Amino acid sequence: MSALLRQIPANIPQDIRKIRIENSHLTELPRGSFENISALEYLWLNFNNITVMHIKSLEYLLALKELRLQGNKLSSVPWTAFQDTPALKILDLKHNRLDVLPEHALRYLPNLTYLDLSSNQLTVISRDVFYNWPVYQRSQRAEGQREAIANAVLALHDNPWICDCRLRGFVQFIKSVGPPIILMNSYLTCSSPKFRAGKFFHEVELNSCMKPLTSALDTNLTVPVGLNVTLTCFVQASPSPAVWWTYALKLLRAFNVSTEPIGEETIRSELLIPAARPVDAGNYTCTAANFLGNTSVAITLYVGTPWASTTAPGWAPIAPAELGAHVEVRIAKQTVYGITLEWFAAAAAAAEPGETWYTLLVGRYDAAQKDAIYIGPGVNTYSVTDLLPATKYEVCVAVRNQAPRKGQCVVFVTGSDVSQLEQREKLIHIVVIVCAMVLAVPAGMYACTAEARPGCLARCPGACPRRRRGGQAQAAGSKESTLDSLPAGSEDGLCRPEGGRGGRRPPAREEPGKSRPPHRNSADLY
């Protein structure tokens, strides 16, 4: 108990008759797990983590009478493995994950007196599983005879049974079963479909399975432009089918489709097309399918001319029932290539905000025809992108099929091309970096090497000043030593043309009343 075993020990004595390993770490029963213990009669492996059971894992266990595998993680069992255990009487598989019970499952358990399949994941099984069970077959042959047959206890409760036509035979078996087969809990309940959930097997009457049959009240519809239209088809099938709509071989989005049962075997499916446009015209196909097959029905939609109106081209007419609806629109965000709009529906539109559709009309200000975008209920913001820069646009928001009114349109101009701004900004950054590098060179050396003519370079060593004035003049010179403050290409300050003698040029006197030109920073270079 609670041992850290990961496999069946190999050194078990041959005369052992009972093995109990529980709450351990066993994950599988490999082939020949008990080949040296042929005298084994009781094998308890409850509450482990067994997920796999080899088809020959019970080989050589001819004397095995009891096998308990409760509380493991088995999703399937190799039922033919029980050919090696003909004496088995008790099989406990409750609290596992079994979801399938094949028709031959009980064929190799002829002497079973207790079978527990409760608390698994069984949903649909055939009555033939039990009709093929030798215990049941013996009970049928012994009816009216005095032959004594041992009872067999069967536990099938706490499984998520799906009570549709596929379970019809099994439900009939449960209703008719009697000794020697005894149900541990005869009140088996349905988990689905919803209208049968929680009902006992003896309360339901299940019909035979049926291939889907689709129909529509009207297969040809004509609607004016701008109106909402709902296409409806009805499906009769058992079990409940999957239903979907297609248009021009394209699967339509699920949020425009609603499907609900209106009877035990009848389903109604509706497709909503908001504010119908001419491009919405065509054939819409409603298809239903279950395991027996599939059928479909086609509905043809024609979109006619809109109501007579004096509104400008491109705008939908006003529905008489929505004259009080009004929308307030504002720009929440604007970029070079688009904007983000926000709107608020007031008056009649605010009465049912969860069912209000909006029409967004976008185009150039001078365009007669604008693009229409249809916005579903519950949405009050939309981003318009991929617009041309430096262009005047108009955007309007209207409720359902109304024409836009005053205050429901916004006129705006997109910005300049951002690429030019980015290039200009990069160029400024490059110029500033170059200037900073140039200013790091001493002003005197720069003047000697960069601004002198080639003929004067030989005389520069004697001509360049070797001393600067006192600390005050030196500090002032360092502050003003920028590229802009240097002489503009003249050699007068470096060499004297006459006599070859070098000397410094006397500083120029500032004229009274004449202001010094302002110092230029590096940004002015650009």
UniProtKB/TrEMBL annotation:
Residues 493-514 have a biased composition (Basic and acidic residues). Residues 468-526 are annotated as: Disordered. Residues 212-300 form the Ig-like domain. The keyword Signal applies. It holds the Pfam family LRR_8. InterPro entries: Cys-rich_flank_reg_C, FN3_dom, FN3_sf, Ig-like_dom, Ig-like_dom_sf, Ig-like_fold, Ig_sub, Ig_sub2. The chain crosses the membrane at residues 427-449. Residues 325-421 form the Fibronectin type-III domain. Keywords: Disulfide bond, Immunoglobulin domain, Leucine-rich repeat, Membrane, Repeat, Signal, Transmembrane, Transmembrane helix. The keyword Disulfide bond applies. It comes from the Eukaryota. This is LRIT2 protein. It comes from Chunga burmeisteri (Black-legged seriema).
